[in-house]
User: Fold these one by one.
Assistant:
Number 1:
Amino acid sequence: MKILVTGAAGFIGFHICKRLIKNKNYIIGVDNFNDYYDPNLKNSRIENLISEKNKPNEFFKIYKADITNTVEIESIFHKEKPDIVVHLAAQAGVRYSINNPSTYIQSNLVGFGNILENCKKHKIEHLLFASSSSVYGGNNKLPYSEDQGVDHPVSLYAATKRSNELMAHAYSHLYNLRCTGLRFFTVYGPWGRPDMALFKFTELILNNKKIEIYNRGQLYRDFTYIDDVVESIFQIIKNPPNNELINLNSNDPSSSWAPYNLFNIGNSTNIKLIDFIDLLEKQLNKKSKKIYKEMQLGDVLSTYADCTKLKNWINYKPKTNLQKGIKEFVDWYKKYYCN
Ligand SMILES: NC(=O)c1ccc[n+]([C@@H]2O[C@H](COP(=O)([O-])OP(=O)(O)OC[C@H]3O[C@@H](n4cnc5c(N)ncnc54)[C@H](O)[C@@H]3O)[C@@H](O)[C@H]2O)c1
């Protein structure tokens, strides 16, 4: 199968490409290699994909292109003729969206619209796209499940991700485009994102610098290990939405008469930030110096996923607990940065 992966140089994109290549799928990667975080890390991920054991990888090809560029993206679809699209390219991060709204409007709305148009035009069999747990915004009923209404985003980032879900639904209804939205819950692991807590805290603790802890540590997150996320994407590719299976009386806003699905992808655990730091300190064998700060604008207090819908669809069972996941990350970090 030929699969186009946008955001291939990103954290999740890199891992999904690796998994799909292992199963002998042909991967067309697209990424603009922007400098939201160190582009060297993005280049290293791509180098790792391009050559395995010093042999060029015939299953992988990368295009440096921006998803907002209509001409370039159309020509990639036209030339490569992918069967499936896994769309992960986006401006990520809640806090960055407070001061940099235009990047989110461009990449997450204009860029997403461009991907949808090409999926329609080139008759893509199945579009999978990244949404986020942040769509649950101001909801306070935990765990979050897909049948909850999500109409109160508390950041522009969340609003763009919710908009993607709605835009995809319109294409699914109008053009019979099979779409699956993936609501990721704090994904972490080796080759992770430098702007996320695990990476930042590890870097600061190892360099004897202070870590900032928001809302005095009274924040809770559902941390999901990258291999569990990748495995679920792999299974969802093989199980596209089937509108004949939908129960229209279910009153579930994430289901539809159109070939469309939305899933939470989490670990269904609600870890207190302070406990998470404690586990990291044990793994690093080093205590952190903490500065306690107020709650940040746009942040949510808690994320916690109900993954029953995904379990029923692909028998999803996350396998990696936080202790093991942190160890895998720290081992990678030390090997990559400290050797
Ligand atoms: N990592 C998480 O915990 C998490 C949680 C919820 C949602 N998500 C979503 O999952 C997706 C992947 O996240 P990630 O953690 O791998 O982030 P990432 O930033 O590592 O990867 C995104 C990639 O997209 C590329 N990109 C950004 N804008 C682009 C554009 N206009 N054109 C082409 N490429 C562009 C970036 O260069 C980057 O390599 C994103 O859509 C993100 O919003 C991630």
Number 2:
Amino acid sequence: MTVKTFKQGVFLPHYKKYSEDQPITTIDLPNEVVIPLHQHIGAPCQALVRAGDRVKTGQKIGESAAFVSAAIHASVDGTVTAVEPRPYFTGTNVESVVIEVDPEQKEPVWPEQDLSSLDKDAIKAAIKEAGIVGMGGAAFPTHVKLSASKPIDAVIINACECEPFLTCDHRLLIEATAALVEGARLIRKVVDAPRVYFGVETNKADGIAALKQAIKDDETMEVVMLDVKYPQGSEKQLIKAVMDREVPPGKLPLDVGAIVQNVSTAIAIYEACRYKKPLYERVLTLSGDAAARPGNIRVRVGTPIGHIIEQCGGFKGASGEEARLNKLVGKIIMGGPMTGWAQSRLDIPIVKGTSGILIFSPAMVAKTEHRACVRCGRCVEHCPMFLYPSHIGMYAENGRYDSAVEWGAMDCFECGICVYVCPSNRPIVKFVRETKRHVAAARAAKAK
Ligand code: SF4
Ligand code: SF4
């Protein structure tokens, strides 16, 4: 069995056992959903509704005339109570559509379409109309990514799910294999790629078996087994492992003839083309040592994380407020433990790119203050982008953002490895994010 990988990175404990064997379930709807109008890379959407409007599940409620943007849809039947800024998982406030959920919900009907009649423009149009973005966390609009004007040799379906704890894509590999394969075929049709690779880490044996069975008669598709190493699912590392091609700094996968889409996104593409179903719900993983009932759950966009936690049994050993007061919960993270965002409130809504909600006990969370760099070199040794994280952190910490950029801050994709290996607990990703914010603000000021 050939197992491929990339250089550097780290071997992390998987912590997948909490939820990997839990089939996908649904939960009750909350009383209210809060749907941000800017949950993607690109231009924010303008609201198409206002307070008092009645909306149906799947109805478009936000869009933008900009090419790089993604339409937003209602995730429930209900009444719009406000269009106003609401707290967002990154710590800012984002203009959002607030919907009071009807107690009676009509299950939407999505009539089947004939996939063979769709040409590449029709597929792209369906993807755009459905508001699909990269669901691995990047949230880049998919119709933009698939509008590459360069020749593409291969589509890579990213089924690595390399961050610890997350298992939703693993479950989809097993439970929605046919939809995933059809989604991959649609992507290939759009970009005219001769081959499709499914990159899967070897810790998903049942997923690998399901995929192999599903594509056994298609010689243009292949399952590539990958080492269980972080960040194997990052685009550049995945392309290196699967195709042995290097994406140079500042370049994109399409510059080396590759397009990467993750499992959830490929399935959303299938559903958009087959049923004209907009992206208003997703599967995510609820896990962590302080989660009472870890699992993989289908959730409507805009659902508050507190509601999801409560529906899954709450915090281990205590109810919500009690858990916080008694300090039973050390940290709540939206996303994976390496790239996710810590949350301090339970009313934050999940968005299209939310792959997980993780609840950790205080014992799982390091609380030591960061210290000065001791120049051990571990961050340099492990950085998958071959950067000097120590230098980036040092310069950014002192406000010397230009020097941080010179040392590659803009090439950092915030995988968190340098933070994980650092004996001085240096918050390098925080420094990188500060640098990127500074650069974006400087560019915006220059453009005025
Ligand atoms: S500098 Fe960026 S890419 Fe390199 S290890 Fe740190 S977070 Fe990852
Ligand atoms: S791992 Fe931490 S202490 Fe070591 S060189 Fe990097 S920033 Fe400095």
Number 3:
Amino acid sequence: MALRELLEALATEGLQNGWLRRETFDPQQLVVTDSGVVYGESVRARHIIFCEGSAATQNPYFNWLPLRPNQGEVLDVECPGLSEAQVLNRGAYVVPLGQQRFRVGATYRRPPFAESITDEARQELSHKLSTMTDQPFVVTGQRMGMRPTVPDRKPLVGTHPARPVVSICNGFGSKGVMIAPRLAAHFADVLEGTAELWSEVNIERYSALYLASLSEAGVSS
Ligand SMILES: Cc1cc2nc3c(=O)[nH]c(=O)nc-3n(C[C@H](O)[C@H](O)[C@H](O)COP(=O)(O)OP(=O)(O)OC[C@H]3O[C@@H](n4cnc5c(N)ncnc54)[C@H](O)[C@@H]3O)c2cc1C
């Protein structure tokens, strides 16, 4: 099953079983106390974990963390002559999707970001593919997304220094699909008190930035 279908299937299950709601989270509606959180009229919880990817740069609790969004694009191509027996990787990756279709990726762009998919990315990835195969291909799709990257290339996981019921699970950069499930399970254990958070991913390593944000705001720690 492709990743998009897997996420869609999980979302459908969540909506049906009531553990997922599809709506835009509004931080103005969140009330945080020492013992838990209340959101809007209907949600009460012991804890909130923000998992909002690049949007966390605007998060009022965690905007001091060094999250650096990076934009990326991929192409879908049809290339009947190309073998589907392996993934190619040389400056770009080419992943077989079946039925002579392939995913070719990816580009990296720092701000300023493009509003939508670009000709530049299409040309760059088409060129890279043409250096890996002499078979003709047709571009059938193009998509873009954001990577939530961190300068030290490690995730940002942990609990707010002053708000013990508010946490974050983010900063997966270009490896979220690979590492987020494992780290989410680990963090659940941490919050249940059965594991200690891996120090490499702990947001505590950036506590100096938190203190600097307080003094910038004129708050004493
Ligand atoms: C082109 C490209 C190729 C990639 N290839 C790979 C790869 O091959 N392997 C790999 O492991 N990773 C890859 N990645 C990286 C991977 O996609 C990210 O690491 C991963 O998506 C990060 O997951 P996340 O859940 O933290 O953030 P996101 O996937 O960005 O999810 C955050 C979600 O929160 C939602 N959200 C934000 N704010 C709100 C709000 N206020 N209310 C409601 N919802 C909100 C967003 O809409 C979004 O759905 C790639 C990324 C790109 C861009």
Number 4:
Amino acid sequence: MRAGLAALLALALTRTEPLQAQEPAGAIVFKTCQSCHSLDPAKTGMAGPHLAGLKGRVLGSADGFDYSPAFRAARAQGLSWDDEKLKAYLADPDTIVPGGWMSPPAGFSVADRVAVADYLLSK
Ligand code: HEC
């Protein structure tokens, strides 16, 4: 009987969990990027460029950010962010912008990277 109750309780907890998680997974992952990045173009002076409107944005083109030579070269080539490039960049920045200043974000699963990329491309 007790085991049955515990199982029922476990089921209830599992079932209510998605209702309690109100933030999308990508927004939660993005919190770890916010020490360096903002989604507000007006917020300057951070370690990294703002990431607003990333979908279709030319690499290295945030106003007021002093990019590495690697990003400036990518901008000169007119490369722009899309789903594939962003996911590859987050897995290993050097594959997209060799020699740029951002370290590969550590400790994320593939699912985390997909979630944060989808989140940013929708902002
Ligand atoms: C320790 C600071 C730091 C953290 C944490 C960080 N970044 Fe960055 N990021 C940078 C810097 C610095 C650059 C610019 C690199 C350059 O100029 O070479 C950058 C560049 C970028 C760019 C290119 C933007 C553009 O204007 O083209 C993207 C996209 C990006 N970061 C995404 C992320 C995401 C997503 C996370 C979290 C998973 C993250 N970053 C975490 C410092 C950081």
